[in-house]
Design a protein that fits this description.
By secondary structure, the chain is α+β, with helices and mostly antiparallel strands. Helix content is about 20%, strand content about 35%. The chain has one domain: D-amino Acid Aminotransferase, Chain A, domain 1, CATH 3.30.470.30. Strand 3 and strand 4 form a beta hairpin.
Length: about 200
């Protein structure tokens, strides 16, 4: 099995959301983490553990292939969106809707063939927004908020029944493995929290 050379950055679990002005906050969608790598006409999708899922999600592959940039690597979450706009993990896991799965892209590792993992997150976000400025169905720029709104945003996400929040320091580089400048807070009432607890029970 071919493994991706790009190990995903993994957020650290926390008890509270950072409230400082130097943080970027993203809604955590209930899906599968994917690294999307394009080199010329070839697009590959890699899971968090390095499995090649390029044949699984044609909508994401097609969107990456149609992008004007022929060499990039992005990090995101593969999701199946329900009619209410909320990710449907059970539908995603069932494999019955693979053709409808889309990607919420939240980071960029390579831009125009150049490794940009050492750049601050804020600049990588700028590069990612530029890459996805021409909207192509299948890959979407994940929305985010900046600054001290984190705790309020987390409470709002919980009220809406979303999985939680990931907060990242705006100056942080991209580093494979567990990283303490990426913080994850999960909605304890969400099904994903129960799945994790069951896995360790």
């Amino acid at each position: 099995m071919f493994k991706s050379p790009y190990q995903p950055c993994i957020p650290t679990k926390a008890a509270k959301v950072p409230a400082g002005s130097d943080w970027i906050h993203e809604i955590k969608h209930d899906g599968y983490r994917l690294i999307v790598q394009r080199e010329g006409d070839r697009v590959r999708l890699f899971t968090r553990n390095g499995h090649d899922w390029s044949e699984r999600y044609p909508r994401i592959v097609e969107a990456a292939w149609r992008n004007r940039n022929a060499s990039f690597v992005i990090d995101g979450e593969a999701v199946l969106l329900g009619d209410d706009g909320v990710s449907d993990f059970n539908g995603l896991h069932s494999r019955k809707h693979d053709a409808s799965v889309q990607l919420y892209a939240f980071d960029m590792l390579v831009s125009d063939g150049e490794d940009i993992r050492k750049l601050p997150l804020s600049l990588r976000k700028t590069n990612l927004a530029r890459l996805l400025a021409r909207r192509v169905d299948g890959i979407h720029l994940a929305p985010f908020e900046q600054g001290e709104v984190g705790p309020d945003l987390f409470r709002h996400a919980c009220k809406l029944g979303l999985e939680g929040l990931v907060s990242k320091h705006r100056d942080s580089p991209y580093r494979g493995g567990r990283f303490d400048r990426w913080i994850k807070n999960k909605n304890r009432q969400h099904a994903a929290f129960s799945r994790v607890m069951d896995a360790f029970g």
